[in-house]
Amino acid sequence: MRILAVLALLLPARAALAAALAFALIGDVPYNRFERTWFADYLAQVTADEVDFVIHAGDIKSGGEYCSDELFDDRLGRFDASPIPFVLVPGDNEWSDCDRRSAGRYDPLERLEALRRRFFPPHSSLGRRRMAVASQADVMPGSPYRENLIWQAGPATFVTLNVVGPSNGRGRGKKVPAEFARRNGANLAWLAHGAAEARARGSAALVITMQANPWIEAFVKGDPHPGFGELVAALRLVAETFEGQVLLLHGDQHVLTIDQPLTDRHGRPLANFTRVQCYGSPLMGWVRIVIDPAALPVLSITPNAYSPTPPGKVSP
């Protein structure tokens, strides 16, 4: 009953879906002293851009920093200080690559559990003002993937997936790692659940956020990366069968990208599928995304490069 109550809170009546929604996408930040020093000012500028919440597409530190509890606590404090709701998607730098020498030789799965305890409180986003969310662990009892989230905001259904670069933990070998197989299966099930919820709610858009660049271009050319092939095929199926807009958000490559790279099974461009790769260190910035069912086009995407607030001026 508690799960049903949470979902009832997340999924308002269909009539409420008509209002426009604005939110911000960031990722691959903070990586260095400058970015940490100015992070609060950065979030203040994002908030002043009249957005309802922030999604961070993962990589909350550089690959050369230790995956320590102290670093995690530092990032939690910064994200929780956001004036508006803040949602994090796990990146490879903070768990799957933590066994590297430069990252401190940690156990990746132990670090993922440490992330879950800090950054994914039950039924809630981070931020000074919280937003109700549900996790895969709520909706699919027995699932450990509490970092995979779903929520409804205005005209859109939002889903997050724990999909990490550079190869989603799969590699290119013939042997399929057990951890990848479990997580990939959970991600596919969660994406299908999110698409079903979006259809049931009559959402104008389904917004999917993950950390990794899934190399859609390789998939379209017939050479999918083994770590992403099933996922991109599932994204194609969703876009082909969903009446609204499908928006894939990710980080990973630190290069702002806004395009429509996915085709259907006949090689025709899928006009309702848009991919946005966010800014990343050393260039701080955010992407403001508006979903307005009453507008044409329904999606409005505006990149914003960050500049520190001049001395003597206070960010709103």
Order of helices and strands: HEHHEHEHEHEEHEHHEEEEE
In round numbers, the mean pLDDT is 93
Corresponding CATH superfamily: Metallo-dependent phosphatases
Class of secondary structure makeup:
alpha/beta
Rg value: 18 Å
What is the CA–CA distance across the termini?
A: 41 Å
- Total count of domains: 1
Main sheet makeup? 7 strands, mixed
Number of strands: 12
Low-confidence stretches: 1-17
Q: Proportion of β residues?
A: 15-25%
Shape: globular
Q: Under the CATH scheme, which class?
A: Alpha Beta
Name the strands of the widest sheet in spatial order. 4-5-6-7-8-10-9
Write the CATH architecture name: 4-Layer Sandwich
Helix amount, in percent? 25-40%
What is the helix tally? 9
And the CATH topology? Purple Acid Phosphatase, chain A, domain 2
Give a written overview of the molecule.
The chain is α/β, with parallel strands linked by helices and 316 residues long. The protein has a single domain (2-10, 18-305), classed as Purple Acid Phosphatase, chain A, domain 2, CATH 3.60.21. It contains 9 helices and 12 strands. It has helices at residues 2-10, 33-37, 39-48, 69-80, 108-119, 136-139, 178-201, 216-220, 229-241; strands at residues 21-26, 54-56, 86-88, 134-135, 149-153, 156-160, 205-209, 245-250, 257-259, 273-277, 285-291, 299-305. A 7-stranded mixed beta sheet has the order 4-5-6-7-8-10-9. It has a 5-stranded mixed beta sheet with strand order 3-2-1-11-12, with helices on one face. Helix 7 links the parallel strand 6 and strand 7 (205-209). Helix 7 runs parallel beside helix 9. The longest helix has 24 residues, at 178-201. The radius of gyration is 18 Å and the shape is globular. The protein starts with a helix and ends in an 11-residue tail after the last strand. The model is unreliable at 1-17 (pLDDT under 50).
